[in-house]
Design goal:
The complex is a heterodimer of chains A (about 425) and B (about 110). Chain A is α+β, with helices and mostly antiparallel strands and about 425 residues long. Helices cover about 30% and strands about 10% of the residues of chain A. Chain A has helices at about 5-10, 20-35, 45-60, 110-125, 145-155, 190-200, 200-205, 225-230, 245-255, 275, 305-310, 355-370, 375-385, 385-395, 425-430; strands spanning about 80, 95-100, 125-130, 135-140, 175, 215, 230-240, 245, 285-290, 295, 315, 320-325, 340-345. Chain B has one domain: DsrC protein, C-terminal domain (Arc Repressor Mutant, subunit A). The chains are: A alpha+beta (about 425), B mainly alpha (about 110).
Chain lengths: ~425, ~110
């Protein structure tokens, strides 16, 4: 015991930032004196630190590639991890990760968090990651015999399910939505929950060629960054006009209300200048201020949210709300990083969400049929072309899908698209054009 | 390397229990493993159908089949496969079929 000597890791405790090394050390010390009935090695945190120090020294990792661990009935949710120096670090010989499906928008009762931590100290390492980038609660490090036990306790006592891992639907994720935010254009929590329940099979039993993520942003501010991180991004939007309270606009100009809801405090930015801080920053130049009245040319608005964020008491999202659906974002793997592409400009988002479910079905069928192993939807879209993707979605090309005119001419006309069609005869063509 | 003893035979397996010496596979190995992977009693015709399909595919292509292809070719849907092999096609069926550990993204 107390074999830990980690000079390189200790460097990571310097500076004013929180340190995962300090956190793990704290847990290691706690485990030494705790009276918890540990089901995993008491020294798990010590061995983990020592192993990481060795990795720094050797400049290479000491976890084996892959590992197949899981619970009966599910193919995902558990990620097998084995150390390649089991004799030297027996407490982390097997150190599996569990992904646990997070509650929508991370609303927890402290009671739940206490129960979860108690479970994880007893049956795991005590180390958690709240939350992984897909959104799950990540429980780091347990042994093979503990996996089924943890799953039983999680589902029966904590009423929480495992999340996604491997080539399946990953745990859907959403922003805080209508529960706290006036910008939310649809109930992101309801959409997230409804689709999670609808696609239980796809979430727990991997059947795709690769992962598939869906995220729900209530408005274009994109608090879960769905446009950058999910194969299907559902982003709230509105069809009608931004609602303006002219009185309140004047109050902002007069300094009665603080811009940005009082954000950017702690420094004197001078009096609020509506022209400099809002009108001139509008990316489509669709706003005007005559000293008394604010005007917005709503046809040109591209939902950047800046004016609404700056003057939330004066400007509100429209009344006819729904979502834009975009597909194909991903981090760089086979191809480089990609943002998702607008496919459905507007879809009402109301229970039972049948329209979006049907759309997902069409896309999964195509992706499963045409996609290569480890090919994300975005890469397949690139390989087959956006015109083909629109055909799969049974959607017509629309100017709103294009960033700017003539920049991405991916539309190929078919004879059926042209009134009257056209006749083509290769022999006739060759009379006029040599080969 | 861990070893597994079944029916008087010793098999070399990896930490997840996947057979390391592929040529040592036989039907007794699969049957012996069944209870460990949550399958009760003797393996049925449906179990063998999937195991043989996986073995044939592996012999031909050197990798485990993709799930969707497996379902299509065997006429077993994914739900049925999980009923037959509760630990799933990768951890259960491939292990009983004597394949080495399938690699995949986490």
């Amino acid at each position: 015991m107390a074999k830990r000597k980690t000079p390189m890791l200790d460097e990571l405790e310097n500076g004013k930032w929180p340190s995962f090394v300090s956190d793990i050390k704290q847990e290691a010390e706690k485990r030494k004196t705790s009276d918890i009935d540990f089901q995993t090695p008491k020294e798990v945190c010590d061995d983990l630190l020592d192993l990481l120090e060795l990795s720094f020294k050797d400049r290479e990792g000491h976890w084996k590639h892959g590992g197949v661990a899981g619970v009966f009935g599910y193919g995902g949710g558990v990620i097998g991890r084995y150390c390649d120096q089991p004799e030297e670090f027996p407490a982390v010989k097997d150190f599996h990760t569990l992904r646990v499906n997070q509650p929508s928008s991370y609303f927890y009762k402290t009671e739940f968090l206490r129960q979860m931590c108690e479970l994880w100290e007893r049956r795991g390492s005590g180390i958690t990651n709240m939350h992984g980038s897909t959104g799950d609660i990540i429980l780091l490090g347990t042994t093979t015999p503990q996996i089924e036990e943890i799953f039983w306790e999680l589902t029966h006592n904590l009423k929480q399910d495992l999340g996604g891992s491997g080539s399946n639907l990953r745990s859907p994720n959403c922003c805080i939505g209508k529960s706290r935010c006036e910008f939310a254009c649809y109930d992101t929590q309801e959409a997230c929950r409804n689709l999670t329940l609808e696609f239980q099979d796809e979430l727990h039993r991997p059947s795709f060629g690769y992962k598939f993520k869906m995220k729900f942003d209530g408005c274009p501010n994109g608090c879960v960054a769905s446009i950058a991180r999910s194969d299907m991004s559902v982003i709230g939007t509105w069809k009608d006009d931004i609602r303006i309270d002219q009185e309140a606009v004047r109050a902002y100009v007069a300094g009665e209300f603080k811009p940005d809801g009082g954000g950017f405090a702690g420094r004197d930015w001078g009096p609020f200048d509506i022209v400099k801080e809002v009108i001139d920053l509008c990316p489509t130049h669709c706003m005007a201020w005559n000293g008394n009245k604010l005007g917005i040319n709503n046809r040109e608005c591209n939902r950047c949210m800046h004016c609404i964020n700056t003057m939330p008491r004066a400007l509100r999202i429209g009344k006819e709300t729904g979502a834009s659906i975009l597909f194909g974002a991903k981090a760089p793997i086979l191809e480089g990083a990609q943002l998702s592409t607008l496919t459905i400009p507007f879809m009402p988002m109301e229970e039972p969400f049948n329209e979006i479910k049907e759309l997902i079905g069409k896309i999964w069928d195509w992706w499963s049929e045409e996609g290569r192993s480890r090919e994300r939807l975005g890469e397949l879209m690139q390989r087959k072309g956006f015109a083909k993707f629109l055909e799969v979605c049974e959607v017509k090309a629309d100017p709103r899908m294009i960033k700017e005119p003539r920049s991405n001419p991916y539309i190929f006309w078919k004879e059926a698209d042209i009134p009257g069609g056209w006749e083509r005869d290769i022999k006739d063509f060759r009379k006029r054009h040599q080969k | 390397m861990p070893q597994l003893e079944m029916g008087g035979q010793t098999y070399e397996v990896d930490e997840d229990g996947f057979l390391q010496e592929l040529d040592k596979w036989n039907r007794d190995f699969a049957q012996g493993y069944a209870s460990i992977e949550g399958i009760e009693g003797t393996l049925t015709e449906e179990h063998w159908k999937l195991i043989e399909y996986i073995r044939n595919y592996y012999n031909q292509f050197g990798i485990a089949p993709m799930i969707r292809k497996m379902c299509k070719d065997t006429d077993l849907n994914l739900k049925r496969i999980y009923e037959l092999f509760p630990s799933g096609p990768a951890k259960g069926a491939c292990k009983l079929a004597g394949l080495s550990k399938p690699t995949g993204c986490v």
